[in-house]
UniProtKB/TrEMBL annotation, chain A:
InterPro entries: ABC_transporter_permease, MetI-like, MetI-like_sf. It is found in: Cell membrane. The keyword Chaperone does not apply. One of its GO terms (biological process) is transmembrane transport. It comes from the Bacteria. It is a multi-pass membrane protein. GO terms for cellular component: plasma membrane. This is Sugar ABC transporter permease. The chain crosses the membrane at residues 24-45, 86-107, 119-139, 168-190, 226-248, 278-297. Residues 81-296 form the ABC transmembrane type-1 domain. It comes from Streptomyces coryli.
Automatic annotation (TrEMBL), chain B:
It is found in: Cell membrane. Keywords: Cell membrane, Membrane, Transmembrane, Transmembrane helix, Transport. CDD domains: TM_PBP2 (cd06261). It is a multi-pass membrane protein. Signal peptide: none annotated. It comes from Streptomyces coryli. This is Carbohydrate ABC transporter permease. GO terms for cellular component: plasma membrane.
């Protein structure tokens, strides 16, 4: 246990009866602390160690210094995976304005059926990504898919959306947007409901139209929610895996142009027995997540208004 | 027109919003009416369009699942099936241990959710309401667990499960997921908001720490427990990466990984793929429809506090 000589001693002096309730507190925390130690903290240290080692064919690993990191930084597939992942991140952020607009529409005073709309928009988010992936692969199907059928009505010759390297990543990104709209909608709806109606009424009296009210009242007052969701969205997108894994079969010619950092990690760690480089890749991913999150927190002062 | 039916059904839910607008109702009635005709109609139109985009893929999934394989790939496609058939659903259950997979998913969901409710609420209560040495450091460690992406842990976690001899077992699915930093923080926020006097009164009456926690404090955070349970259930049921790593044997896979096998087995039998994915998604959709309030609260809670 960590020791804090000064504070601990001070506490002991001030409140002599503490030890008994302290024991209870430790008992309360013990189960989860053990779980964290075994399944989270120890593995974290181990992955850090793995990232500097090479795994032997017959088990056991040997220290190889920074070689894994060198390999990761020089590997062309990592560069492509990074670019794809950034594309997913940008597309993920597009979800936010979509959700905000829907939230603003739902916030119309006296509008009926809000609960029903909200339920429908949230439906894709509760459905498991594995099922969503199969469903959209079917819609995107080049020969029999509904999307190409509908496009043919207006004379457009559709593509093989998910096996064409030029469109596959966008096709997947679109599904990500579709399935997350409802999630952000709930957060924005809660944020918008918290904005006092008087503000809108006062703005209306001053002659502000719906667009102006949205830009001048809704957006600034919603900015804490927008900031929070953009942080969540970036973290989620940087870890994109499920949909890509399900939608792209191993023989898909567009595999390289859709692979994310995490699908590459999975391939290295569990299919190609390259645990060392995989561990290094995972650490670089964490650094990327930390860096982008930090950047967002730094930039927040410029545009987030806290009431 | 959809509004008329949705309006009557939503009427029960309406008073809250109506309440906020009430102040303006008395003198403003006529202009409000006029606005409803154009603006509200346009709003409904846009929202219905979006709702259609959300719902239609699921409808197409169901219609495809009820078609025969040849009919599903006909060009141009039929909208309603010509021969309604359950054959695809039967195939899903006979070709894979689909029922076992559903059971595994249920057990995984149950294990993670119960685990989190117990472990997180205990720790959350201690962090919120008790003083003890090293609290801040421990709390910082918990915070760091929350920030580490799961990919960083998965290789050693897999090894630990292997060393425990639990690969390809149901406990492997839920073991690490029973401990959640997120759940601990969520519940801690709630425990923090409860009045001190309750505990003090109970302590004077001679109740011990566990008794105060169990019979006084825990019942008061029931809404947060429900929200956490529902959100955890959803994440557990839908999780894919971890099950793929630990359980490669179809008999022990949950349904998420099972769908991936189904895809490998029935590459182009779309009715079977749609039937399988439909069944796999249904439990969470039903849970959501019945416990909507808790879902919304869980999302809003995790969304409002950064």
């Amino acid at each position: 246990m960590a020791v804090f000589p000064s504070t601990a001693a001070a506490q002991a002096r001030n409140k002599p009866r503490r030890p008994r309730s302290q024991r209870a507190a430790y008992l309360f925390i013990a189960p989860i602390a053990i779980g964290f130690a075994v399944f989270y903290i120890w593995p974290l240290l181990q992955t850090f160690y793995f990232s500097f080692t090479s795994f032997g064919v017959f088990g056991g690993n040997s220290w190889i210094g920074g070689e894994n990191y060198e390999r990761v930084l020089q590997d062309v597939t990592v560069g492509r995976a990074l670019l794809n992942t950034l594309l997913y991140t940008v597309m993920g952020l597009i979800t936010l304005p979509v959700s905000i607009i829907i939230a603003e529409l739902l916030n119309r005073p006296g509008l009926r059926g809000v609960a029903i709309y909200r339920a429908l928009y949230f439906l894709p988010f509760v459905t498991l990504p594995a099922a969503i992936g199969l469903l959209w692969n079917w819609l995107y199907n080049g020969d029999y898919g509904l999307i190409n059928e509908v496009l043919s009505w207006i004379g457009i010759d559709g593509r093989y959306w998910v096996s064409d390297p030029t469109t596959a990543a966008y096709a997947i990104g679109l599904v990500m947007i579709w399935s997350h709209v409802g999630y952000y909608l709930i957060i924005f709806l809660a944020g918008i409901k918290a904005i006092p109606r008087d503000y809108y009424e006062a703005a209306e009296l001053d002659g502000a139209g719906p667009v102006r009210r949205f830009v001048r009242i809704t957006l600034p007052l919603l900015s804490p929610s927008i900031f929070f969701t953009s942080v969540i969205s970036v973290i989620t997108s940087l870890q994109a895996f499920d949909l890509i894994y399900i939608m792209m079969s191993q023989r898909n010619p567009a595999l390289g142009s859709t692979q994310s950092i995490v699908t590459l990690f999975y391939k290295w760690a569990f299919e190609e027995n390259a645990q060392g480089p995989a561990a290094a890749l995972a650490f670089l991913l964490m650094l990327l997540i930390a860096a982008l999150t930090f950047l967002q927190f730094r930039l927040q002062k410029r545009w987030v208004h806290y009431a | 027109m959809p509004e008329s039916t949705t309006a009557t059904r939503a009427a029960a839910k309406l008073p809250r919003q109506a309440g906020t607008a009430q102040g303006t109702w008395g003198d403003d009635r006529a202009p409000a009416r006029r606005r409803f005709d154009t603006g509200a109609l346009l709003t409904h139109l846009l929202l219905s369009l979006g709702a259609f985009a959300m719902l239609f893929p699921f409808l197409w999934q169901l219609l495809t699942a009820l078609k025969t394989m040849p009919e599903s790939v006909r060009v141009p496609p039929t909208f309603l099936p010509e021969d309604w058939t359950w054959a695809a659903f039967e195939k899903v259950f006979t070709s894979l241990p689909f029922a076992e997979m559903l059971t595994n998913s249920a057990l995984n969901t149950l294990g993670r959710t119960l685990g989190q409710l117990v472990f997180c609420s205990l720790a959350a209560y201690a962090f919120a309401r008790m003083t003890f040495r090293g609290k801040n450091v421990l709390f910082a460690v918990f915070l760091s667990v929350l920030m580490v992406p799961s990919q960083l842990l998965i290789l050693p976690q897999h090894q630990i499960i292997q060393q425990l001899g639990l690969l390809n077992s149901v406990p492997a699915l839920f073991l690490p997921g029973m401990f959640s930093a997120f759940g601990t923080f969520l519940l801690r926020q709630f425990f923090l908001s409860l009045p001190r006097e309750l505990e003090e009164a109970a302590r004077i009456d001679g109740a011990g720490s566990f008794r105060i926690f169990w019979s006084i404090m825990l019942p008061l955070v029931r809404p947060a427990l429900a929200a956490l349970a529902v959100i955890t259930s959803m994440w557990s049921w839908n999780d894919l990466l971890w099950p793929l790593v630990v359980n490669t044997d179809p008999e022990t896979m949950p349904i998420s990984a099972g769908l991936s096998s189904l895809e490998g087995q029935y590459l182009t039998d779309y009715p079977v793929l749609m039937a399988g994915s439909l069944i796999a998604g249904l439990p969470m959709i039903l849970l959501y429809l019945f416990l909507q309030r808790h879902f919304v609260q869980g999302i809003a809670l995790s969304g409002s506090k950064g």
